[in-house]
Amino acid sequence: MTIIRPKIQLLDEAHKKQIFIEAKSILETLGVYIENQEAIELLNSNGINHKDSRYFIPSDLVDKCLGDVPSEIVLYDREGEESLSLKGDNSYFNPGSAAMHIIDEITRQRRRANSQDFIRFSKIVEQLKYIEAQSTALICQDIPLEAQDWHRLFICLTNCFKPIITGTFRKESFVIMRKLLLACRLSEDELARKPLAIFDAAPSPPLKWTDLTTQAIIDGAKSMIPIEFVSMPLGGANAPITLIGSITQYCAENLAGTVISQLTKKAAPIIWGGSPSMMDMKYGTTPMSAIESMMVNIGGVEMGKFLKLPTHAYMSVSDSMVPDTQAGFEAGMGILLGALAGINVISGPGMLEFEATQSIEKLLIDNEIVGMVKRFISGIEDYGSPFASEILKDYEKKEQLLSHPTTKKLFKKELFLPSSIINRMSYNLWKNSGAKSIGKRALDEASKLINKAPIKPIEKNLLNELDKIASTNLK
């Protein structure tokens, strides 16, 4: 029995209530900008007051909509097997979405990504034990702009069985992406009962849901496909410089998205989340891994948990340009804090440069960090007392405990056993093994993983169906 599940908390209950009340007041008095015509008609039909495109959402409507939202979302893999349960403090990790660049494994230089990079990336993600979901992680320069959204999903489905975090940059993409997902299920009803993908929808700060992102909410709700809100307040620029102010704005933007989803279809699944940052006052950049950005993320997630909703955050990215020491400590902090906060969907392993670049080297190192963190949050096990005295009696006889029954029985459960990426050798053994850095060991491991057989090979008929959809739409 685990004694406690290690956790972290930044807000007390009184401040959560205050933030919630103020966020609802912001929507009711300041309002939220809505650009999407279908959403405008929906809000108008529900009698919501507005001034031009600014809609003033009543507090009681927010409460009603929150009451209709599912508190748990179960995700299934490509083959329809149950995979992830987004509830409570369960934490699952995925690479972040839509990076434009990749760190070339040979030249070690940043360059634009192509479809072969993404195929390789997806095949490696499938082999990683602690990265439980995949994502449409790279924008491929060799694919036509109008096909980018659905083609990334196509690569995911054909090269990895895990659930997918994705999204649209064009409204027209959703229809094709839905067809690809339906090919993996027997019917529309089964796709709704066994969701395979989450679609991101990001409001534009402050307090604006654009035509594109609002359409994503509406399309997802109609098909009962989970929609993941990604609120992006930039403290000091388009959000208050105070952390609590940015958290309140984050909350208001997510509440507005909740109303749109529930007015579209009652009980439509949503995930409360974000990717906030605080303006770097020296360089004018948006550091995702600044400690304050992480604090706003955790505070925002605590508000989602306060409302009993599944949660999301970008919490394992690095602002470094290359997979170096900075990338390691920033990702490590984010992964640990995100898991301690019990965030359900944590995005960012592999990501660098303010979410603009992916690195396979960092992805594999982050996978090891996630494994260590999962061991940490599993806590300390109570196997019954006495805890040590009986075991220590055996030491008196043999002057070692390696052969003790508890050591042999429990060492694999008690200890996280890393891959060869993590060096625990003596200096001489490390030197004689080539004196490789962690980056080189990670790239060596990547070369092995890419040549491994798929864990769940795609069924031939499904592959043919996906190919048919892709060839029809890629002109």
Please tell me about this protein's structure.
The chain is of the alpha/beta class. The chain has a domain at 67-364: TIM Barrel (Alpha-Beta Barrel), CATH 3.20.20. It is 45% helix and 13% strand. The protein is built from 17 helices and 20 strands. An 8-stranded parallel sheet has the order 6-18-17-15-13-11-10-9. Strands 2-3-1-12 form a 4-stranded mixed sheet. A 4-stranded mixed sheet has the order 8-7-20-19. Strand 4 and strand 5 (82-86) form a beta hairpin. 46% of the residues are buried. The model has no long low-confidence stretch (mean pLDDT 97).
Please name the defining characteristics of this protein.
TIM Barrel; four-stranded mixed beta sheet; single chain; eight-stranded parallel beta sheet; 475 residues
Topology:
Elements: H1 13-29, E1 32-34, H2 37-45, E2 50-51, E3 54-55, H3 59-68, E4 73-76, E5 82-86, E6 92-94, E7 101-103, E8 110-112, H4 115-127, E9 134-135, H5 148-159, E10 164-167, H6 173-182, H7 188-193, E11 197-201, E12 208-209, H8 211-223, E13 227-229, E14 234-235, H9 243-264, E15 270-274, E16 277-278, H10 291-306, E17 311-314, H11 325-340, E18 345-347, E19 351-352, E20 357-358, H12 360-377, H13 389-398, H14 405-414, H15 427-432, H16 438-450, H17 460-473
Parallel strand pairs: 1-12, 6-18, 7-20, 9-10, 10-11, 11-13, 13-15, 14-16, 15-17, 17-18
Antiparallel strand pairs: 1-3, 2-3, 4-5, 7-8, 19-20
Helix pairs in contact: 1-9, 3-9, 4-5, 5-6, 5-17, 8-9, 9-10, 11-12, 12-16
